[in-house]
Design brief:
122 residues, 3 helices, 9-stranded antiparallel beta sheet
Length: 122
């Protein structure tokens, strides 16, 4: 298991709302109300970006997946929060991580999405 990023909202996220909202944003939902995944496409290939198990979360392995999770969170009117309390967001077209007063920019959203899901090297 990797580092988990959670999609959090003030009001609980219902499966029906998830299904309806993400389809309009270009994501696909596979599975059932109990267990599923949110999929994004890059080229002709589908890639899982989030997991649904009564709550929505992801374990990204690339900047592309972080960016997709940030887009997904924004689409749902939610925040993307890491295990250590840091928040991931899109501000002025830039994907960023903010923890307290410190921030880190992943880069421009459109460039990250165009580059695709190349995994981070370990």
């Amino acid at each position: 298991m990797g580092y988990e990023l959670r999609v959090e909202r003030e009001s609980p996220l219902a499966f029906a709302e998830l299904a309806g909202t993400i389809a309009r944003a270009g994501f696909e939902l596979r599975g059932s109300q109990e267990s599923g995944e949110v999929v994004a496409r890059h080229g002709d290939t589908a890639h899982a970006v989030a997991i649904w198990r009564g709550r929505l979360y992801g374990e990204p392995a690339s900047d592309w997946q972080v960016a997709q999770l940030a887009v997904l969170s924004q689409t749902l009117g939610a925040r993307l929060v890491g295990e250590d309390g840091e928040v991931y967001a899109i501000r002025d077209g830039i994907v960023e991580q903010v923890n307290g007063g410190a921030g880190y920019e992943f880069g421009k959203l459109e460039e990250i999405l165009a580059a695709g899901p190349a995994q981070w090297s370990r």
